[in-house]
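User: Good morning. I'm curious how potassium ion would be positioned relative to this chain. Could you predict the structure with it bound?
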Amino acid sequence: MEILSAEQIRAWDEYTIQHEPIASIDLMERAAASCLAWLEKQGYLDRSFSIYCGKGNNGGDGLALARMLSLLDCPVTVHILEFGNIGTEDFQGNLARLHQTPVEVRFVQGPEHFHPVPQDDILIDALLGSGLNRPLEGVTAQLVEHLNASGNEIIAIDIPSGLFVSRSAKGNTVIRASHTLSFQVYKPAFLMPENEVWVGEVHILDIGLHPGFLSQIAGEAEILDPDIIGAIFRPRQAFAHKGNFGHALLVAGSYGKMGAAVLAARACLRTGSGLLTCAIPGCGYAILQTALPEAMLVMDPDEKIHTAVPDGLDKYSVIGVGPGLGQDQRTVAFLRSLLQQSRKPVVVDADALNILASHPHLLSLLPPYSILTPHPKEFERLFGPSPDDYVRVEKAREQARKLGCIIVLKGHYSLIAMPGGKSYFNSTGNPGMAKGGSGDVLTGILTALLGQSYSPGEAALLGVYLHGLAGDLAADTHSQESMLPSDLTDHLGKAFQIIQKR
Ligand SMILES: NC(=O)C1=CN([C@@H]2O[C@H](COP(=O)(O)OP(=O)(O)OC[C@H]3O[C@@H](n4cnc5c(N)ncnc54)[C@H](O)[C@@H]3O)[C@@H](O)[C@H]2O)[C@@H](O)CC1
Ligand SMILES: Nc1ncnc2c1ncn2[C@@H]1O[C@H](COP(=O)(O)OP(=O)(O)O)[C@@H](O)[C@H]1O
Ligand SMILES: [K+]
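Assistant: Good morning! Here's the predicted structure, ligand included:
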């Protein structure tokens, strides 16, 4: 599913109006009807509503919804915030239609018109939508604060008023919604952690915008959905042998952190690697041999850390490096040699990223199309602080282009930024994964896929999606609280089955 800017969404509305064709006010009717259907499905129709409208088309949506609710005998009051203009044509059209119903309409010109909010009312926020072009101020900001302070449940239409579609509203006044009902596609605002408190749960409602429009635009970002994943996933051929599925080398673990190596290695095996060799320091020998009889080992001469690059790197189809590695000076030198000798894309995570951050000249050694998997803190160490989430995402895109690598910026909606400029936000995963070790599992998954016949881009998309899907399945089994990173690996089998069936 594409992620579009306010301008692109407006252009899509226009395209639909011309090519379906449909009158603009009828498209608004469809938007309001989709909100009504959602309210009905969620069991809200036995409630009463206060609907707050601006005078743009977002307000028009609110007026149309008010009429529809009233026709179903729901108690509704409409409050229109006066901006000193007459409102858009479709706003006016819907106001005229609303006047045919018994709905009471109140006009708000200043704080003296702020009525106490009835305790049980659901508040519908249709003040401002994707047309917001400056932070809220004056009466608008005061009204939003008044509504937020009421403690009533707020449902925002299209986007919480005060939130920009594609740039940060940090520090601004914004409606605090528990649900946001938006149309057709995700907006960037819904994917940024900093907006979680404002948008609540997001529901994307289909209003039948014309599909022809999408072939005309070069979408910069998409939500990773089952269709994309279904097109990437390749089932095994009947006559396949282990040589078809790669020989992965996982470079991980150090004294006190061998668990990271075990987690990554198990995930790598469960993701179908043909062969797996783990490069580990001496202290990990018994641990790995006992935990994973399927894995082979190459031992570092050092007991505790990585110091020597294994011989014959070329025989491995892929290298994954980082989990539990430590950052000893000798390990820094080790990483330098490993990267210098690597001729294929590498999966780089955790301490390998931290070493790159403290020795940035090593970044130039990354083979093209390597996959870097920083969480936001590691990302900051690598590329510096970002004032807000939008800037961080843009920076990740820029760095992916600059380094010629794939950057997986991990989070609730992990970003996968491709060197060619395109990026994806993952749709699977849950906060039960916010535990030390989940990232190690991802490294194992990505390493396994990159070692098979998947291109680096495909491996990154499929791997991040599978990891989150396994997390969702693990949460179903164990709860978000109780699930462990190793449970992600245990649910990979089921995740593969789901992908295969689609
Ligand atoms: N055909 C369409 O275009 C459709 C549009 N829809 C609705 O239309 C909305 C977009 O409508 P509009 O483009 O009219 O945008 P808005 O309803 O967001 O209103 C924009 C107006 O508010 C003013 N404004 C911007 N920032 C302000 C601020 N901080 N304080 C006060 N005034 C401010 C702008 O100058 C402009 O006049 C969407 O969010 C969606 O709800 C839906 O009805 C679906 C169909
Ligand atoms: N709230 C969340 N929602 C979805 N996924 C999450 C959430 N929190 C963490 N994750 C996922 O869990 C993984 C955590 O990785 P990381 O922070 O590197 O942990 P580790 O300490 O295990 O290395 C990432 O893939 C991230 O996307
Ligand atoms: K709104």
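Residues 10, 13, 24, 27-28, 31, 54, 56-59, 61, 83, 88, 128-134, 136, 140, 157-158, 183 surround NAX (ligand 1) (CB under 6 Å). The first helix runs from residue 6 to 19.
Let me know if you'd like a different ligand tried.
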